[in-house]
Amino acid sequence: MLVLVTGSTGLVGNNVTRMLLGQGHQVRVMVRDPRIDRSLAGLDVEPVPGDIREEEAVNTAMIGVDAVIHSAAVVHIGWTKEKLMHQVNVEGTKIVAAAALKQGVRMVHVSSVDALGVGKKDASANEDSPREGKIPCPYVVTKRAAEDALREMVPQGLNVVIANPALMFGPWDWKPSSGRMLISVVKKQPPLAPRGGGSTCDVRDVAAAIITAIHKGRVGENYILGGENLTYFDLWKRMAAITGRRPPWGRLGPLMGMIAGLSGDMYGHMDGKEPEVNSAAIKMGSQYHYYRSDKAMEELDYQIRPLDRTLRDALIWFRANGYLPALDGSEA
After folding, report:
1. CATH code reported for the domain at 2-175+199-229+290-305
2. Any one cellular component term from GO for this entry (predicted)?
3. Are 159 and 107 in contact (CB under 8 A)?
4. What are the residue ranges spanned by the domains of the chain?
5. pLDDT recorded at residue 65
6. Which of 65-69, 95-99, 201-205, 261-265 has the lowest mean pLDDT?
């Protein structure tokens, strides 16, 4: 099977690419820079230069493939980059979908749980929960718009399945993305954790389910790929225990959170580059992004490995690849 993977240098895409190769499949990767960077170095992939916003390039990359896994996206929790996110997350997805429709191949679209409704501390959301409650920052808005566009194309014959991963950790996080949280705990544990919580999973389990969706996913359906639901305070304590670092003191209070968020907004406005700590991120961090993955477990053979194992493997990978100092014996 020949599979086209977009976003192959990102956390999900890189794990998907490596897993496909490990299963004996051929992989074509669409990259903006034809020079292979270290995330793909040594991998037997077929690189095709181009950008998902370029219709001709996408059509060329799609020729002869059996399936496409579309994981390319701009990810930023904040109020900026709206134009870029719309171009990539929405218009780029529509271009990939149109090419898949033209070639008549299965498309697996990697979305996010942020496109779904928000869960509650005592009630996890699922694929059918009302799409309400999420902070309407550009990332949330564009991921939802991309899904809406895909569903509109299903009656036209688009053979698409939508995967909704939760908060992922694991190896091959070259950027890094969510792994920044683990790195920050190792380097300097922030004293206060966000007030909310999330569903935390292993990117390798997510990648396996995405590949399975090529054959088993139902057309037009969403599949949540989540994991253990826990507060960010508890997650950071787990990270601290594994890394031998001091645990956080407590949770960020509403007033302090508001001040931190507004300060980040003001700094970004003056500096021209929005920091990770901004009012959108603070508000998202105060919610409980709890989800159930029953549907994926039943239909995509999705499995959830123990969180501590995931965090340890991610830590080992970050150390081995120079993101963190070499092991000093403090980790168990």
Report:
1. 3.40.50.720
2. cytoplasm
3. yes
4. 2-175+199-229+290-305
5. 98
6. 261-265
